[in-house]
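Two proteins, back to back. First:
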Amino acid sequence: MSEWLVLSIAMASACAVVLTITVINHRRVGEDDDPSETPDVIEYMTMMIGVVYAIVLGLAIAGVWEGRSAAQDSVRQEAQALHEVSARSEVYPAEVRARIRGDVDAYVSYVVNTEWKHMAEHGSLTERGTELLEQVRRDVTDYVPKTDHEGQAYQPLVDQVATADDARGARGAGAEATMPGVVWFGLIIGALVAVGLIFTLQIRRTGRELLLAGLYSALIAFLLFLIWDFDAPFGRGLSATAGPFLDLFPEATR
């Protein structure tokens, strides 16, 4: 099922529940009921709880967005480091250069075509990807430079492989969900409380009040969906992409 379809269903369901409760509650209210008699303390408490929950939602969104940005940065750093390895191996003999570039291409192709899907489904890296990157490392470190020019390029190549390995580790660490279960519990309970409190204000069946109640509940449903979607940096619709790999290694998808 499409994530946007899930979002639409969630928002529509939230609106339907709130509006249904409002209509049912209105039918139970007597004709002599005066909505202006709502105690001021209830209005104050409703406002304060809404403000506190809005702050919590903002912090949660900022946290998962930061995690997604960090995941995308790790992908960019890994792709750039591997591109540097491939480019700087130009100073090596043709046989060594071809071996290094071939193994770099094999690793990138595996990451884009196989490991990316595994990360999305399981939230972890694969052993095969680790082996392919280790092969690139051996290609670089096992070669003994024979000229000063090759010697000057050796250490930068080793450093770039180390950078790629570090970025790969960061990519693996960011593949899992970042929001603890207890935080989700608080967000969901807070949403129920925030929406439930609007019924203490004795909203009526006027078009304006029903519209505002529906929009309020739909907004909270949308924000919770946004947090859920960003919570898996590599696994959902607004996730980090393999774009940096594809930009620097356009042959990777073939």
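And the second protein:
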Amino acid sequence: MRNNKYLAIYKEWTDKINSGEIKAGEALPSEHDLAETYDTSRETIRKALNLLSQNGFIQKIRGKGSIVIDVQKMSFPISGLVSFKEVSKNLNMDPITTVHDFGLVKPDPFIKQQLNASSKDEIWKVFRSRTIGGEHIILDKDYFLKKYVPTLTKQICEDSIYEYLEKELQLNISFAKKEIVVEDCTEEDRQYLDLEGFSHIVVVKNYVYLDNASLFQYTESRHRLDKFRFVDFARRGV
């Protein structure tokens, strides 16, 4: 029974987190204090904490200890092509969008490659952060080819770009190729997001096409690790 003590400790803390007794952002007691509380070894405590970490209940942050993660995460569909405004509405959220950088630019080599652009092309560059619950937790970096999006304003970017593209410009946005990776946080991430000690970030890269198969947008949507999960539905073919 003693060998399974770490499982009992793990279950006790998952129950506390799931019930809201221990809230997201709070720190668990130290390994030393937990070992004294449960009259057990620090090795047993470490096994319980590792299990909590592996199952998404806590994040170990240097200098802060074991921090409880928000288990009520927003769900972003992987296979769908929806705007942030549409996701927010479906989840009854009221986020704040802040435009940090906006304007027409000449593409650098990286963006030229992503959009198959030429040196003559002009690109709309839009950097926006999303604030939810008082925290800046998403950084969206959008690039649009001007030949497909002739006009764009900061006010539109603060509201919904896709709503403008489809309703005003009458663009038929058809499909996207997506890539999801975990990367080291950049200086831009640190500048625009409240990272809370996290050193990595989830990046969703989108290559978005019109119905004539023209690539017109490249996006990097950069998400803080503890706030989001990405979901999909799959069916086995017969």
